[in-house]
């Protein structure tokens, strides 16, 4: 699917992207693991956020995802932002395990 992405220069570029697209964003205290998929002509982004100490999680589903402006490597999941299905599934499994603990009041 060809997807327009506006880069830092505000110039729109079009990239042919193979989905699913995996990427991550490491911040000081959390890591975001993202998976972007195409369903018909819509993009959906799944995000799993894991605290660096492994004690907190966030889950988000954006059913109307659009690429915004910013670093092209981030949008394409390249370089520092590269990730994989394995990393995303590992983060998702950590989140599931934490949710099981909440359900059983073990936290």
Topology record:
Blueprint: E1 2-6, E2 12-16, E3 21-26, E4 30-39, E5 42-51, E6 57-62, H1 72-76, H2 85-103
Antiparallel strand pairs: 1-2, 3-4, 4-5, 5-6
Give the number of helices: 2
For the record, give the distance between the C-alpha atoms at the N and C termini, rounded to a whole number. Answer: 43 Å
Shape: elongated
Strands of the widest sheet, in order across it, are 3-4-5-6
Q: Let me know the average pLDDT.
A: 87
Uncertain parts: none
The total beta strand count reads 6
The string of secondary-structure elements, in order, is EEEEEEHH
SS-based class: alpha+beta
Cα-atom Rg, whole angstroms? 15 Å
Please indicate the count of domains: 1
Biggest sheet overview: 4 strands, antiparallel
Strand content: 35-45%
Description:
With 107 residues, this protein is an alpha+beta fold. It has one domain (2-103). The protein has helices at residues 72-76, 85-103, and strands at 2-6, 12-16, 21-26, 30-39, 42-51, 57-62. Strands 3-4-5-6 form a 4-stranded antiparallel beta sheet. Strand 3 (21-26) and strand 4 (30-39) form a beta hairpin. The model has no long low-confidence stretch (mean pLDDT 87).
Concise synopsis of the structure shown:
This protein is of the alpha+beta class and 107 residues long. The chain has helices at 72-76, 85-103; strands at 2-6, 12-16, 21-26, 30-39, 42-51, 57-62. The protein has one domain (2-103).
What attributes does this structure have?
6 strands; 4-stranded antiparallel beta sheet; single chain; alpha+beta; 2 helices
């Amino acid at each position: 699917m060809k997807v327009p992405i506006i880069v830092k220069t505000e110039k729109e570029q079009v990239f042919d992207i193979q989905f699913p697209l995996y990427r991550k964003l490491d911040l000081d205290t959390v890591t975001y693991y993202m998976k972007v998929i195409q369903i018909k002509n819509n993009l959906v982004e799944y995000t799993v956020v894991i605290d660096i100490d492994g004690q907190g999680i966030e889950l988000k589903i954006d059913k109307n995802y659009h690429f915004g402006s910013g670093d092209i490597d981030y949008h394409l999941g390249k370089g520092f932002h590269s990730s994989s299905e394995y990393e995303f599934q590992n983060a998702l499994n950590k989140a599931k395990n934490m949710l099981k603990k909440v359900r059983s009041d073990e936290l």
